[in-house]
Each structure stands twice: as structure tokens, then as C-alpha cells.
Amino acid sequence: MNREGECMTIDPKPAVTCLSPSGDRRRGRAAAMRRGPTARAAGVWLGTIVLVATLGSAEARVQEAVAIPAPFEVGESPAGNYLAALVAGAERDTVAAATFSREALRFDPHNPHLLERAFVSAVSNGNMADAFAFAQRLIAKDPANSLARLALGVKAVKERQFAAARAQFAKGVSGRDRDVTAILLNAWTYVGSGKVRQAIELVDKLHEDNFAVFRDYHAALIADVGRRGPEAATRMKAAYEADKNTLRLVDAYARFSAHHGDREEAIRAYEAFNQVLPSHPIVVAALETLRAGKPLEPLVRTPEQGAAEVLYGLGAAGGRQGDELAAIIYLRLALYLLPQNSLAIITLADIYERIKQNEQAIDIYESVPVSDPLRTTAEIQIGLVLESMGRSEEAAARLKRIVEDQPRNEDALSALGNLQRAHKQYAQAVETYTRALAASTKPEKASWPLYYFRGISYERAKQWPKAQADLETALRLMPDQPLVLNYLGYSWVDQGMNLEEAFGMLRRAVELRPTDGYIVDSLGWANYKLGRLDDAVRELERAIDLKPSDPVINDHLGDAYWKVGRKLEAGFQWNHARDLGPEPEDKERILRKIEHGLDDSPPATKAELTNNGG
């Protein structure tokens, strides 16, 4: 029984929160927590809306380092080190790639290909001293290498050698008048040289409509740093009015307003964003500062910070678009300029987590300053990474410590509840979700995931009336939510209740998520249980096309094939399900079917189900 989809967005935010279907398969695929509903703060620009999930802003206590990197050794063979560097690069293992590339280059120091690989590996791993040294050697052989020029230009910005930085950017970018990176970075170097008007004129060369918000945003920041207040106010207002749903832009606008004496407008802007995404830690911290009558500093105050903002925005956008290596490089350069940028740190760690470099992700999450509002975000994410690495006891201990320190932190409670549910600790999960609901300061509609998760936990704990009440509440709060439609609809079919409404829910869930193999499987299996065997086979075959490696769906299709007389194909599907690693109780049942087949009595009819279950 597949009642939970493969991946769901719990809160609107830049990284999708996935609940990998594993854990309890007593009735199919139960969604275990891969990444719980916690914030992944990443301000994606170029017109992309960024909304980040909520977390509390209390300072987390310092934790011991928990990442244990996998050991590796460099060899004496140049070819072996080169091949190892290639493999590490393909796997985005930046630590190993940097190490092996450097060793390979040591044996052949004049090889331009090895030199470029060593440079890219060093900058992507954050070894900036090595990266800059390699970049100098690289441009001696390839003067137009744009990435090496970019790195050296950023180094010059850090050293406040702004004319030298412009020279590097100019030599490394072809068609630079059209290149966003070159235009914006050069603009900030002009600010550093005291040429604010020239900087704004350069930014205004971004004529395309897609760049309008980005253009006005950086023009406003430049004008503000250059003490051109009226122009800064006009441009910042234009950027904000064009996009009020982007956290980074709202934060910049509110900070600008507060810094220029309009504290009430700053509070209004934050509170308006709070309606879109309640209780984000950056917003919570800023509102506390403003209401305490304390000053709120502008987001950017120096040319170096402005250049870091450019690189951060481009890196975050690249991460969203799937270009992980470019995103990592941009973010490493941004952090070289501004090491305390917690949003850049969180974004970089999230990318490493997504590419399965978990030790690196943990190390980076741990670098968020302890006093930063996003420290709790980082702490929770470390717990979730530990869970994904199979270190469940450490993950639970870390999340419990956060909850002890911040007993009303809804997102920490929700993450802990997900962990407990993934490990079939349903009574504990119910208690934790209940605490999260009691602690919630969000609008009721935003709490639908907690009702959904608690409903699942109640159902697994065999408390169906409470489960049904929670699932119905979740659906009332978020009508047409496909995962809730799927879970509640299938549960009703399973019990022979509300059959017409249940099938309508399942069909609607499939319409909303037609490529979710688990939801399609639910519809197929519901048809099977009602004896609609042709419909069942059709839907289950489609589910297999979408999720060919799922043991439960293969098992279901085998049952349907058997009932329609396709017994040879049924045996094939059951054997395939057996080989895909089903849960132990499922495997025992599958083995019995492989040996003896199914009872050939027909499935229950609608009337029988209705008589037995209402």
C-alpha cells in the first residue's frame, strides 16, 4: 500500500524537502525522513522566488565536530593519482579531487590540463591559497582562462586593489558587456575606486527584463554605499515592489528603510513577508532588534560585501538550476570575501548534501556562527544528514538536544517527529507532533504537514479515528494536497469506507502528481482490492514504469497479473520484488507467493467492503 508520495515540499523554500519512502512497509511505502521540514536558506536571484522554511532564532550551543571523513591515501603512481582525481571530480568529492589533482600535478607540473584541474579542484574545495597560486600559473599558459581571471579578480577585490580586479575581469570574459558576472563585479570595483556614477551606469547595461529586479537591487546597494540616498531609495523601492516574496530582497529593503530612519516601514515589510513565510529566523531576529529600538545594519556596506553578494546570488541560482560545480565555486569565492555570510554557508552545505558529500556538508553547516539566527537551521540539518548516513542515534540525540534547548521550536520538533516516525516510534512521534502544533505561531493553514504526519503516526499506531480526524484537518487546511488525498483516500478504500469519495480523491491525486509512482500505485492497488482487475493492471503497470525498482509496486503488479491469469508474469514480478530488498515481513509473504501462488478467490467486491466497513 502506497499512501505516501516519494517527495514533498513541506514548506515553500529553495530546496525541496523529500521524505524518502522507506521504513514501515507493512502497508507499502512509508515516508521516512530524508530531509525534514527545516529551513534551507538559499537566496536565489535572477527572478527566482526564494522562500525559506521557519526556524527559531535562539542561539544553539556549540557541538563537537561530528563529520568523520572517509580515509583515502595518495599513491606514488602519477597515473593512479590522475585517475583518482577524475573519479573524485565526477563524484563531486572536492576534498579527494583537490588532493589527488595536486599530487598528479606534482609529477607533471607543466601540464596545462592537470594545472587547470588542480585549480578547479582547489577553488571548489575552498583551498583558496592553492587556488590563487594555481590560477597565476594557469593564466601564464592560458591568458584568457575566465575562471582563473575571476578568482584572481576576487582576490584583488579582497585586497582592495580595485583597478587590478577590473583588469582581471576584463581579460577573462569574452562578450563581457553581456556577462552578468563581469558587469556586476566590475560595477563594485568602480564603487571601490570612488566612481559610483560609473558603477550604476554599468549595472544599467543589464537591459533584459529578466534582470530588472537584479539590476535595481544592485544599483540600490551601490547608490547606498556611495551615499546617493535618493537614488538608492528609488531603486530599492522599485526592486522591492517588483518582488516582495524573496527573503533576501525583503531583508535588504527593510534594513535599508531602518537605516534611513523609517523603522515602521521596515517592520511593515518584515511582517508582510511573515504572512508569506511565517517566523523565518532572519525575520524573527530582525523584528526583535527593531522592536528593541536597536539599529539594524544595511546588508551591504563595502565594495567587498557587494561583490560577495553578487557571487552569492549567482551561486545560489546555479545550485537551484542543477549546476553544482559552478554553484560551489561561486559560493566559495563569496565566502572568501565574506566568511560570515550564513546564507551562503547554508546554501553551500545544502549543495554538498544533495550531491551526497555528507561529511563536507556537516563540516560546512558547523561553520555557521553560533550567534547567527541560522545556527539552529544548521544544527537541525546536521541531525538530518546524520540520519541519512545511518547514524540514527546521533541524529536523534542532536535533535533532542535542540528541543531541550528550544522546547517551542516548531521545526526542531517537527524534524524530531519525522525521525521518530521513520523509525516506527509512532507513539513518540504523535507526542512530538502534538508539541509542535502547540508551539506553532504560524497561520493554521501552514500547519497542514504536522496534521498529515501526526495522522500517519496515529494510523500506524492503529488509532484510526484520530488518524482520520488529522488527515481530514490537513485536507481542509490544504485542499487538493495530493499526498493527503492519496493517504486518506487509500485508507478509506482499505477499510471499505466512503468508496466513491475515496476513489475521487485517488484519481485527483494522480491528476495532480501523474509522475509519482507511489500515488499511481495507490490507485492501482485500490482498484485491485475492489476487483477492478483490468484497471488495476493498467495503473500498476504505469506505476512500474515510473518506479521500476520499488519492491512493493512490483509485488502489487504480480498480484494483479495472477488474478487476471498472467501467472508467468506474476512470478517474474514477485521474483523481481524479492530481489529489490523488501521489508522482512513483505519478503516472507513474497516467497510464499513465489512457491504457492495466490488464493484464486476473487478480491472483495464493493458491496462486501461496504457491508464490512461502512
Helix and strand layout, with pairings?
Elements (H helix, E strand, L loop, with lengths): L77 H13 L3 H14 L4 H13 L3 H14 L4 H13 L3 H11 L7 H13 L3 H8 L8 H14 L3 H14 L4 H13 L3 H14 L4 H11 L11 H18 L3 H14 L4 H13 L3 H8 L9 H14 L3 H14 L4 H13 L3 H14 L8 H13 L3 H14 L4 H14 L3 H14 L4 H13 L3 H14 L4 H13 L3 H13 L4 H13 L9 H8 L1
Helix pairs in contact: 1-2, 2-3, 3-4, 4-5, 5-6, 6-7, 7-8, 7-14, 8-9, 9-10, 10-11, 11-12, 12-13, 14-15, 14-16, 15-16, 16-17, 17-18, 18-19, 18-20, 19-20, 20-21, 21-22, 22-23, 23-24, 24-25, 24-26, 25-26, 26-27, 26-28, 27-28, 28-29, 29-30
Written account of the structure:
The chain is mainly alpha-helical. The protein has a domain of 74 residues: Tetratricopeptide repeat domain (Serine Threonine Protein Phosphatase 5, Tetratricopeptide repeat, Alpha Horseshoe), CATH 1.25.40. Helix 3 runs antiparallel to helix 4 and helix 27 runs antiparallel to helix 28. The radius of gyration is 27 Å and the shape is globular.
List the total number of helices.
31
Per the CATH scheme, the topology name of the domain at 69-142 is Serine Threonine Protein Phosphatase 5, Tetratricopeptide repeat
> What's the story with the biggest beta sheet?
none
Shape: globular
Structural class: mainly alpha
Radius of gyration: 27 Å
The separation of the N and C termini measures: 20 Å
Q: What is the overall pLDDT average?
A: 83
**Top CATH class of the domain at 69-142:** Mainly Alpha
Helix content: 55-70%
CATH homologous superfamily descriptor of the domain at 69-142: Tetratricopeptide repeat domain
How many individual β-strands?
A: 0
Beta-strand content: under 5%
CATH architecture of the domain at 69-142: Alpha Horseshoe
